[in-house]
Amino acid sequence: MANYDIDLVVNAAPHIRDKVNTSSIMRDVVLALIPAVVGSVFIFGGKVIVVYLVSIVSSILAEYVGNLLFHKKSSLKDFSAVVTGVLFAMTLPPSSPWWMVVVGAFSGILLGKMIFGGIGSNPFNPALVGRAVLMVSWPTYMTTWDKPRFFIGFPFRILNLDTVTSATPLNVVQLQSYSQLISEFGSKLNLYTSLFFGTVGGSIGETSALLLLIGAIYLFIRKVIDWKIPTFYITTVFVLSFIFGRDPVFSIFAGGLFLGAFFMATDYSSSPITPLGKVYYGIFLGILTVIIRQFAAYPEGVMFSILLGNALVPYFDKVMPRVYGVFPKKEVSK
Amino acid sequence: MKVFTYSPGGVHPDESKITKDFPFEVFKSPPVVVIPLQQHTGAPNNPLVSVGDYVKVGQKIGDTNQFVAAPVHASVSGKVLAIEDRLLPNGTKGKCVVIENDYKDEWVELSKRDSFNDLPKEEILKIIRDKGIVGLGGAAFPTAVKLSPPPNKVIDTIIGNGAECEPYLTVDNRVMLEYPEKIIKGILIEMQITGAKRGIIAVEENKEGAALLLHKKVQEMGLSNIEVVLVKTKYPQGGEKQLIKAVLNREVPSGGLPLNVGVVVQNVQTLKAITEAILEDKPVIGRGITVSGDAVEKKGNFIVRIGTPASFIIDTLGLNRKLRKLIFGGPMTGIAQASVDVPVIKGTSGILMFGEKALEMAPQEELSCIRCASCVDSCPMGLMPVLIDHASRRKDLQEAERLRALDCIECGVCSYVCPSKRHLTENIKSVKQAIIKQKKIEAAKQAAFEKLKQQRQKEKEMSQKEEKNG
Hints:
The complex is a heterodimer.
Chain A: H1 22-44, H2 47-69, H3 80-90, H4 98-112, H5 126-137, H6 139-142, E1 145-146, E2 150-151, E3 157-158, E4 165-166, H7 169-175, H8 178-185, H9 188-197, H10 209-221, H11 228-243, H12 248-253, H13 257-264, H14 275-295, H15 302-311, H16 313-316, H17 329-333
Antiparallel strand pairs in A: 1-4, 2-3
Chain B: E1 3-4, E2 24-26, E3 32-36, E4 46-47, E5 54-55, E6 60-63, E7 72-73, E8 78-87, E9 93-101, H1 121-130, H2 143-146, E10 157-162, H3 171-178, H4 180-194, E11 198-204, H5 208-220, E12 226-231, H6 240-248, E13 263-267, H7 268-280, E14 286-292, E15 300-305, H8 310-317, E16 325-328, E17 335-336, E18 350-354, H9 357-361, H10 374-378, H11 385-393, H12 397-402, H13 413-417, H14 424-469
Parallel strand pairs in B: 1-12, 2-15, 10-11, 10-13, 11-12, 14-18
Antiparallel strand pairs in B: 3-9, 4-6, 5-8, 6-7, 8-9, 14-15, 16-17, 16-18
Helix pairs in contact in B: 1-4, 3-5, 4-7, 11-14
């Protein structure tokens, strides 16, 4: 035999793997969130940058502490803590105090994720766990909303830059009425455009349907998220809102639905893995969201719907896909 | 041409069909061939020659009277040096006939035929078995067995499998481009044996040239019962079950065979071999293989004699870097070799050689499952690989079976797509083996129990009789 340099490695097939890996997926999610993040800085001002930074740093720290506490290998490389950090910040009111953000991020990552064994093992969406903790701990801070710095609906009139509190559109609908909201915005079209571009009161990252949609489309193209959950979620909200006599277009653009449907409900760890399970899950979330908005004390129901849906994921996963060559009993008897 | 495909599932890895346009070259005859006695799926063969015997090319050197088997033939002329255990491409050791090549290429006498139309079915099947034909796509299942369905099964369609969905491999493409008539005749022969009315040759879109050529030849031969169809370039389009679903929209029932839905799927190179066996009286003594990968200096498609050691191929074609991985077969299902001293056998569709790049092509470190469901979405069998993998890891055979692990075709797609690089296919394979083993044990236990029961019964009767008599 010739003198070739041979040092063979042996492993099981397949001998090629897709280039996609956990960190590339998480990086894609961060990239997809950038339009909405940048938009939120324009809409609510520079102070939200602090919220983002505090949230991201706390999340990474919490992940690190979690790894130490539970004797895990470092999981910082997978970028999932950054994703949680950005998403968590997006669910907070613009004028959240920094210490509250720290508490929320730590609660979300430690109680919502690391305690269950880290990435992939958490039954609940960590960002929403963090938000739920804050919601019950500091309800006042969590329901104090800034006025956006400008309205696109009003012919580009820049408002005064001082912090002025206001109510979110869903708040107005609950406390007053939908017609009151329309009159505040001047016209229905103005309301729609404001919701579309995000120049309304609300959580930092939830207001602009357009910017969230851009990110979501990117994730669809990159095949990071599956279309089924968001599509069925949003469609169900649309249809049910119409049945309950609400304006369906307003209902899907208002509140945290887009942020929740595209970026929270699709969280891998806390959502179903079977194709049909995803469909049912989406519909279930839609029903819950509309019910909470219609009947509960809260004007918005996205967070609670998703957390409750998370708890039921094992049941949705029971709807297995049909295996090739396995037919329903009826067909066989024929 | 209409493009067919199956759903759901499947992936489209980099095709890397570097050798697509490299015509077949006849590979030089090695000084020594190592011919394993069993190269097929089924019962083992017994040697028909002894050490020191002189053998001719095409001489049968191993056979058995078992039904599910195919004999092996000498691929060179010369002296039998040894009959001993050697390392085989599947990682095990098996009896091999080692022949020293005298380079005289002395053939056994071949009796050629002009046509097969008047040959009776039994005669054709006998020739196919006698010439050692097995599935040359890689499965190596004895072809004569595949073509002998139970009498109550009606075969209506023969599918020629030219999908060649494995990356890197290009032999089937070359066979279609260089021997189109032999493939078509092979289909005609199979139709004649099985009584099938329809023949289909399915070719992946990335080999459109081959499909067009076959189509042209079919028309020239004036055959209206054979059609050439394109299938989407998607792995594992060439899997029997997927191809049947794509082309005929039929599903092979779980645990069943293609003949349950009236179909026989045959790789194009096997069809060529059938034609050569029937018309030219030629046994399988060589086959087309693709040699590719970044480490091999001279890539290409070669007609190689069965039993040619990989080391000889490496020496002849040369390496341009340190060889880190040697794969027999394609990158999705092929077997990584621990040694270069393994021979090419009937089931070897390609030899891939990779340098350092192989290590990053298949990272071995596993990360946590993130429940992304990629494996669920891309499984061509509609299984839930992640759950079967979990069951396999905790050795829960019952759960794995409930999740239909036995339906897995081991295509490798789940491991390929996994972003956490988890060894799904590997674990599912091992749990499948464990389930099958357990079933065997249980069946044996059951049989022993029945036997014992009968024995007790007998003893009881005996003692009752004795009591009566006494």
